[in-house]
Amino acid sequence: METIIEKIRKELKRNADEKTRIQGEKFFKENVKIYGLKSAQTVQIGKEFYKILTDKTKSSVFQLCEELWKSGYLEEAGIACMWSYNVRKQYQPADFMVFEEWVNKYVTNWAACDTLCNHSVGTLVEMYPHLLAGLKKWAKSKNRWVKRASAVSLIVPARKGLFIDDIFEISGILFSDTDDMVQKGYGWMLKAASQAHQKEVFAYVMKKKATMPRTSLRYAIEKMPAELKARAMAK
Fold first, then answer.
1. How many CB atoms lie within 10 A of CB 228?
2. Which of 110, 144, 169, 224 could form an S-S bond across to 228 if both were Cys, CB 3.0 to 4.6 Å?
3. What are the CA-CA distances from residue 190 to residues 159, 186, 217, 224 (Å)?
4. Long-range CB contacts (< 8 A, 24+ apart) of 178-182?
5. What is the three-class DSSP state of 87?
6. Is the Cβ–Cβ distance between 42 and 75 less than 8 Å?
7. Is 17 inside a domain boundary?
8. Residue 95 counted as domain residue
9. Each residue of 57-96: pLDDT tens digit?
10. Are residues 134 and 215 in the same domain?
11. pTM beyond 0.90
12. Does the pLDDT of residue 171 top 90, yes or no?
């Protein structure tokens, strides 16, 4: 009898398209494993199979997510991210260790990093703010995706105006990182924070702009009025 994971993989293969696979690979500098589905197709397959799960307890769902992550396929990672977010009402602080392991072991590109962290990790940290200390540890990692994760996990809370002091602290830890994925990550976090704290983020950028990587700076000011952008970009 086929397991649900085997059924998912069969359905992904059945919907795979070679042209979509080749186009998908062009979005990444890293080597990625892709079946070749459009994101909407993957989401639909994930939703359909989640509906038929008989056991939707967090431990059972996380176990299935682990199997999906192990494959290394981008579409399976996307379904794993969706399913781990579906059980968010069951989250407990200890789940941070699960997500930490997934980021360390399985995340190898920005799409998997951002999808997991924007939703599952960000929600968990919003529910249990003491876990911000864990994100600050991630920011000091040697793994580029763990470092990016420390920032992009706060995108949604940042838009709500939450954790501004912690956002500046994490930006400070990542500030001089030479990796463009990390620079874009914390720049995006600052941009999200500027939606509720424009004055504070602008002051931060103006204070740091002489040494701030241009990539991070451009991301941080993207949502600001033209006048403020011009001031921030001026030599």
1. 18
2. 224
3. 9, 6, 9, 11
4. 178/213, 179/144, 179/147, 180/215, 181/110, 181/144, 181/145, 181/148, 182/144, 182/147, 182/148, 182/151
5. coil
6. yes
7. yes
8. no
9. 999 999 999 999 999 999 999 999 999 999 999 999 999 9
10. yes
11. yes
12. yes
Token pair 């929600």 is at which residue? 123
Residue 50, token pair as written in the block: 């989640």
* Residues 166 and 232 grouped into a single domain: yes
**Contact in structure between 158 and 117 (CB atoms under 8 Å):** no
Which residue has 């403020």 as its token pair? 228
- 73: helix, strand or coil: strand
Instruction: Give me the domain span that covers residue 43.
Output: 1-90
**Residues 170, 86 share a domain:** no
Pull the structure tokens for residue 5: 């994971």
pLDDT one-digit tens code per residue, 180-225:
999 999 999 999 999 999 999 999 999 999 999 999 999 999 999 9
